[in-house]
């Protein structure tokens, strides 16, 4: 399954604050293309991330579509309560977010790993209060951090175990995020196997293409049995609190790879081109997707040939 995070992570990374209507139109084009799971907003401080100040408004105006799930993100208990109180056809997944990098935790969430461990009873209380069951862990900077350098897989597994030991319930999923693009295929495969073998919980992958290994890491994940990938249309994205972080792996490139491998995604590449065209022509964001650049070049060549 592909979770499309471009509307949240992509718009969150832009310097321009775009109207809610632009996000809505992009969401509709993605759904028309067959995208069935979209992360549409982040419930974070609007003074720090003004691009997400319209989170409640966007959720309220989403159009319900059969078989389509709209999800949201949050970084703390206040954000979780905001998300739970929001109206509209959204699903609020029960994520417990933390990071492998202490520096990133401070910059992104103004907290520490020790504080996260101490706050677990409060997290469980808020999950109970809102009626949202714990789905999993969202673990950022799993392979490295631009401030701290390479982060070893053993350190990531150790932190996951530390959090598990404080919880009264087990999560169903651990989402491994390569926030700053330090991952490479062997380390991705090793971390997936270690979490499954040592922790016994399934893994999803949130990958970035910062250093050009994004799709190689997707392939390593597929070969390791991962079936859930988070990606963004056009490869847009990047954490605003991570210096040098670039976009996620492009949704259309994962779809293309899966088609070559005979893996169905339910997403139409011909229709997703409409969403990419909207992204560039109406929003003004140039896609980094090599697949899309190739498709545009072929289209121009066909026009010239005619």
Describe this entry's structure for a reader:
There is one protein chain. The protein is built from twelve helices and eleven strands. With 306 residues, the chain is α/β, with parallel strands linked by helices. It folds into two domains: 1-92 and 232-306, Alpha-Beta Barrel (TIM Barrel); 93-224, Aldolase class I (TIM Barrel), CATH 3.20.20.70. The strands form three sheets. A six-stranded parallel sheet has the order 1-11-10-9-6-5. Helix 8 links the parallel strand 9 and strand 10 (202-206). It is globular, with a radius of gyration of 19 Å. The mean pLDDT is 93.
Helices and strands in order:
Elements: E1 2-4, H1 6-13, H2 20-32, E2 37-43, H3 55-60, E3 69-74, H4 77-85, E4 90-91, E5 94-99, H5 102-109, H6 113-130, E6 134-140, E7 144-145, E8 149-150, H7 153-166, E9 173-177, H8 185-199, E10 202-206, H9 214-223, E11 229-231, H10 251-261, H11 269-281, H12 290-305
Parallel strand pairs: 1-11, 2-3, 3-4, 5-6, 6-9, 9-10, 10-11
Antiparallel strand pairs: 7-8
Helix pairs in contact: 2-11, 4-6, 7-8, 8-9
């Amino acid at each position: 399954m592909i979770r499309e995070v471009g509307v949240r992570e992509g718009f969150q990374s832009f310097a321009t604050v775009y109207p809610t209507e632009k996000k809505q139109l992009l969401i509709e084009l993605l759904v028309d293309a067959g995208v069935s799971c979209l992360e549409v907003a982040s419930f974070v401080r609007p003074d720090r991330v003004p691009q997400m100040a319209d989170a409640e408004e966007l959720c309220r105006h989403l159009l319900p579509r059969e078989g389509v799930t709209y999800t949201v993100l949050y970084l703390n208990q206040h954000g979780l309560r905001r998300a739970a109180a929001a109206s509209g056809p959204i699903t609020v997944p029960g994520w417990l977010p933390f990071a492998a990098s202490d520096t990133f935790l401070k910059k992104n969430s103004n907290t520490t790993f020790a504080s996260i461990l101490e706050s677990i009873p409060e997290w469980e209380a808020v999950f109970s209060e809102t009626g949202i069951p714990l789905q999993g862990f969202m673990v950022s900077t799993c392979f490295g951090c631009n401030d701290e350098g390479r982060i070893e897989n053993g350190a990531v597994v150790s932190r996951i175990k530390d959090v598990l030991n404080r919880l009264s319930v087990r999560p169903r999923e651990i989402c491994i995020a390569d926030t700053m693009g330090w991952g490479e295929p062997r380390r991705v495969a090793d971390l997936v196997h270690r979490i499954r073998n040592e922790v016994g919980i399934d893994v999803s992958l949130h990958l970035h293409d910062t250093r050009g290994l994004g799709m190689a890491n997707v392939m390593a994940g597929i070969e390791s049995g991962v079936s859930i990938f988070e990606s963004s249309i056009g490869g847009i994205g990047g954490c605003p609190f991570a210096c040098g972080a670039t976009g996620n792996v492009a949704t259309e490139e994962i779809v293309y790879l899966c088609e070559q491998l005979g893996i169905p995604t339910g997403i139409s590449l011909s229709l997703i081109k409409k969403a990419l065209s909207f992204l560039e022509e109406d929003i003004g964001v140039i896609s980094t997707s090599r697949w899309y650049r190739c498709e545009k070049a072929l289209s121009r060549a066909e026009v010239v040939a005619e």
